[in-house]
Amino acid sequence: MWIQSLEDFIKESLDQREITRAMAVKMLLYGYKHKEIMPILNVSSGFISTWKKAFFQNGVEGLKLAYKGSKGFLDAQQHTEVIEWLQTKDEWTLNELEYQIASQYGVTFESKQSYYDLFNEARISWKKTSANNPKHDPEFVTSKKKNFVSCWRSDDQK
Q: What does 36-97 look like in DSSP terms, one character per residue?
């Protein structure tokens, strides 16, 4: 039963590390000693003990790679696509760029600088990413101008 599950796992696995783990356990089950397995698989006695324990606790699942890593960066093609996408737009926001990259490519940068670098490479100033200044109030500017003109005229009359 155990040997068959190991043989199936060895046939199906694509990762050499998983295959080596399974081979070490399989050889133990066939009665090989640590000192016989070590030179054949080029592993240590601790390696054999670790994966034997993992196998008997969790079966072949215990031999699988636990950490698959994360996709941290855009590849060259994706990077080019993002730059081209940025260059087709009239207005940009940092949040929109973050969302686009996360939804399209599953990548979220830890630092905002990575997004700023993309804006820079697309020759876009990330500081000027909206069409209008959100703090700009035309009525307020007009009243300030009127106030300034009236103060200036009153100074001239003195």
A: HHHHHHT--HHHHHHHHHHHHHHGGGGGS-S------S--HHHHHHHHHHHHH-S---HHHH
Measured CA to CA, the distance from residue 73 to residue 107 in angstroms comes to 6
91 contacts: CB under 8 Å, gap ≥ 6: 129, 130, 131
CB 11 within 8 A of CB 57: no
Q: pTM higher than 0.70, yes or no?
A: no
- Tens of pLDDT, residues 128-149: 545 555 566 777 777 777 776 6
Domain containing residue 11: 2-63
Count: domains in the chain? 2
SS3 for 153? helix
The reply to whether 124 falls in a domain is yes
Query: What whole-number distance in Å separates Cα of residue 120 and Cα of residue 31?
Result: 63
